[in-house]
Amino acid sequence: MNCVGERGWSACVIVASTRAARGEYEDLTGPVLSAWLERCGFRGCGVSVVPDGPDVGRALADAISSGVDLAITTGGTGLTPSDVTPEQTRPHLTREIPGIAEALRLKGRESTPYAVVSRGLAGFAGRTLVVNLPGSRGGVKDGMAVLEPIVEHVLRQRDGGGHE
């Protein structure tokens, strides 16, 4: 499967997990996303594991300033006090794409009623497409299913491409 053709777009994954950042358990979502992005033709699909909170915003700012085309976060989209990925993401967004976030919640709803409480965002931060996914393996799987058929179209649109 190659969802971006030969365009050579770049991507990164930011895992928001305080416990994984401390080494208390192994993150299982970042490697899955990175491997999927590479199969889709993205390059530089590194994974950063950071604690919940301001470190998410800093990692996102670093990704955006590096010029990455797609930055996917996983984790921190729920309702616990430490779930602040949307709050760390929103200041960077220059153009929200609410339909992507809505589609992620709808896809998740097929598996669990709890998907509707995910507060993840999606949009552009300058030229970087940013998508917040839940931290669960199921949420990441749903995210890949939603993004795979649209990511090339979204990035082509960013670059001024038309509908095909």
UniProtKB/TrEMBL annotation:
Sorted UniProt keywords: Molybdenum cofactor biosynthesis
InterPro entries (alphabetical): MoaB/Mog-like_dom_sf, MoaB/Mog_dom, MPT_Adenylyltrnsfr/MoaC-Rel
Species the sequence originates in: Dermabacter jinjuensis
Pathways involved: Cofactor biosynthesis; molybdopterin biosynthesis
Domain MoaB/Mog stretches: 12-154
Name assigned to this protein: Molybdenum cofactor biosynthesis protein
Pfam families linked to this entry: MoCF_biosynth
SMART domains referenced in this protein's UniProt entry, alphabetically: MoCF_biosynth
This protein's record includes keyword Manganese: no
